[in-house]
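cron nightly-structures :: item 1 of 1
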Amino acid sequence: MSATNVREKLAGSAAALFQRFGYARVSIRDITSSIDIPKGTFYNHFKSKEALASAILSQHFDALMEALVEALGQSGSETAGARLRRHFESIAPSTREPGVSPLQLISTLSAEGPALPFTLVLQIAEGVRLWNTKVAALISLAQAEGQINAEEDPDLLAALFINCWQGAMIRTKCDPSAECDCLRFALDRVLGASGGGAGGTSKPRR
């Protein structure tokens, strides 16, 4: 098995275990045993469990930011409001396939806050802040297009959507059948119930 494959298998094993059991309850031996490699091999690729968790978080946040940058740069027939709705509906718990979910993993680790190494706490906090900033930028575009009331604070709206999403993710860990109704309700209230997200009473931001 190549070094790249081993590193990817370690990351995949750790992500699945962290998502299911949390960071604190998973050992390096748990990670290596799940893919049948010697524990000593782990240190050829990562200096610690913390370094592995950090690498996984970086990969997941990078993928999230890439999707949002793409949404911000899109133009054409789809409105900014529709792109905003699509972003959150695509990551809602009920729409994700079973298995490892990058955002569910981030949510799981976030909930462990006090038990995490401080560097991971800072990394998660910064990643969520950047996510909030990108979502707020998309909201500002929707305001400029007249789909969201221009008097609303885009940063607060972004935080509202993200907090609704994170609460739903945590709830589904205990109740997988729970629906993400609070997030959809918030999106409908801000964008209107139509799929396109065009609000009839909103005025374009000047």
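cron nightly-structures :: done
DSSP finds nine helices and no strands in the chain.
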